[in-house]
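G., the chain you wanted modeled:
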Amino acid sequence: MSDAERAAKLRLARSRNIGPVTYRQLLARFPSAQDAIEAIPDLARRGGGRAPQLADMRLIEAEMAEVERLGASYLFLHTPPYPPPLGEIGAAPPVLIVRGDLTLLAKPIVGMVGARNASAAARRFARELAFALGDAGYVAASGLARGIDTAVHHGSIDSGTIAVIAGGIDIFYPPENQDLQLDIAERGVLVAEQPPGSEPKARHFPYRNRIIAGLGMGVIVVEAAPKSGSLITARQANEFGREVMAVPGSPLDPRAQGCNQLIRDGANLIQTVDDVLEILQPFGSAGAEQPEIRYRPEKVSADVEPHERSTVTELLGPVPVTVDEIIRQSGIAPNVVQTVLLELELAGRLERHAGGKVSLEQQP
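Predicted structure as C-alpha cells:
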C-alpha cells in the first residue's frame, strides 16, 4: 500500500459521518480510498445533505508522524496483518494502531474480561486461567483495566497477551498500569483505535469492548455485576457468533450476579482451563494460526431510482430498525438499499446502531 493510499484511508476513517460500515462500503464500491473521497460530495447530495467535512490532511500527516515516532504502526481493515476474525464483524474498526509482537494477532485468541473491583479470589483465578491458556497455545486479550483485566495480563504476559485500550496508544490508563502497558508494548501487543493523545472517554469503552469480543474465538467473563461493561462485551461476542463463557460465583456476592445470569441465559460454565479447551478446540487447534476468513464486501449499487430512494427513506424514522427489515418491507434489492443508506449517512441524516439497526437523525 502506498503512503498516499494509507493517508487517504486514514482520512476516511477520521472523518465525520463515515462510520465503520460506510467506510467498508465506500472501499467496496470504489477502486481506492482517494476515489471514494472524490465521490463523497455527490453521494451526500443524493442523500439530501451536504458532504461531511473530511479530516484535515495536515492533521492526518501529523498523526502518521506521531505514530511512527512512538514506534507503533497502522493496521488497515482487510489488509494483513489485520486480524481476520475482527475484520469479519460488521462494525470492525477501519484502522487500528498497534505496538508489539504482531505475530500474536495471528494465533488463537480468547478474550477475558471482568470486574474492576474484583475479589482477590477472582483475580487469582483469572491470572491462573490466563497462564494456563497461554501454556495451551492461546493468546489472552483484555482491556488493561483495573481488577480482572490486570490479572489476565499478568498471567499471560510471558506466553503472549493483547491489551486493547480505550484511549490513544501513548496514554496510560489507569495510571498505575503504566509499567504493565509498556511491558505489553514490548512483549505482547498493545492495540488502540483512537489517535495518539486521545484521553479515554466513556463512549470509547464500548468501542474497545467490541474489539475484545471480535478478536478471538470466545470471551470469558470471570466476575461482573449486572449492567457492567463486561456483560456488554459478552453480549457483543454472542452477536458476533463467538463462544460466551462465564465463571460462576456466590449468589451472595453482587460481583457474581452478572456471570450467574450469563450462565442462566445459556453461557458456558467455566471452572477449569479444561472446560475452556473443550469448548474452543473444535474451532481450531491451539498454537495454530487463526483460519483465514475471506472477506465478502457488501454489495452496493451505483444506480438508484428516485422512487427507490424515497421508499427506503420513508421506511426510516427515529426508532432504530434493522437493515434486513427495511429490505423486506421495501421489496428493493439489498444492494440498492445499502446504497441509499450510504448516501443518507454521508449526508448526516442516518444514524447506525448496534445489531445492524439504523434510524433517521432528528433534524433541528
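The mean pLDDT is 91.

Shout if anything looks off.
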